[in-house]
Amino acid sequence: MNPIRSTDLPFEPCPQVIKLQDVCLSIEGKTILNNLSLETKVSRLGVVGRNGSGKSTLSRVLSGLIEIRSGTLEVAGCNPFKDRKAALRNIGLLFQNPDHQIIFPTVIEEIMFGLRQLGQSKKQAQQNALATLVAFGKEHWQDAHISTLSGGQKHLVCLMAIVAMKPNLIILDEPFAGLDIPTKKQLQRYLNAFPGTLVHVSHDPSDLDGYDQLLWIDEGKVVAFGPAQEVLPTYLEEMHRIGDGDDISQLAD
Ligand SMILES: Nc1ncnc2c1ncn2[C@@H]1O[C@H](COP(=O)(O)OP(=O)(O)OP(=O)(O)O)[C@@H](O)[C@H]1O
Ligand SMILES: [Mg+2]
Questions:
Q1: 51 CA to middle of ligand 1, Å?
Q2: Where exactly are the structural domains of the chain?
Q3: Mean pLDDT of the chain
Q4: A single Gene Ontology molecular function, please (predicted)?
Q5: What are the tens digits of pLDDT across the range 101-114?
Q6: 59-79: b or e for each residue (b if 16 or more CB lie within 10 Å)?
Q7: What is the C-alpha radius of gyration for the chain, rounded to an integer number of angstroms?
Q8: pLDDT at position 137 over 60
Q9: Pocket lined around ligand 1, Cβ cut-off 6 Å
């Protein structure tokens, strides 16, 4: 596998502003995000928290897929829910499960889809999709049927589809869950070369090695937000403390 060089990627490097003020969101009467506020402009932001703490919901909010009930939101220069066009151009979301993301039968069609949504002609979209495949050393994948790809290969297709759209910010919702070590390392290498902002939700602290900042949420609220080297040890200590107890025996209300 050829390592990708950041110079091969058609991006303009620039950390993006993320600003949330008193963001609240409820689903079916249940509060999921509870007065979330933060302001940041870094290249690498990690998001941690327990199962059900609201990380995936936050990822969807940041990419404009769901509307907040109250508060204000600015991500990469736009309100991603209200300004869908700008959000489509600036923000990419990589889902945990590629099957929730992929809709077309072949690799090239899948990569072209987002480009067509950006208003590119069929020819332009085809050229740009191919250029992305070339940049990733995967030109030979263009006519491959997605159903014949492995889980890791599908992840890479999703990542290439996002990268082709040249976003300034990519949100990764547990992108490595279920991947074997080589596939994870390969994807990680591509992501490390991304010069824009990465917002990375992960349960594995080693995924967030070298990250600038960490946001720790619980029950949709900010527990801690700051330099990763300060937040991570406190977070891990608390997770191990809870793990030594037995709160999984508690039933939900
Ligand atoms: N569509 C929905 N309908 C009802 N409840 C939902 C919906 N989406 C999320 N929730 C609830 O919102 C809370 C937060 O869910 P979310 O998926 O954001 O958590 P998470 O931090 O990503 O968890 P995990 O680490 O397990 O992926 C959970 O209590 C979940 O049950
Ligand atoms: Mg989640």
A1: 8
A2: 33-244
A3: 90
A4: ATP binding
A5: 898 999 999 999 99
A6: bbbbbbebebeebebebbbbe
A7: 18
A8: yes
A9: 27-28, 32, 49, 51-57
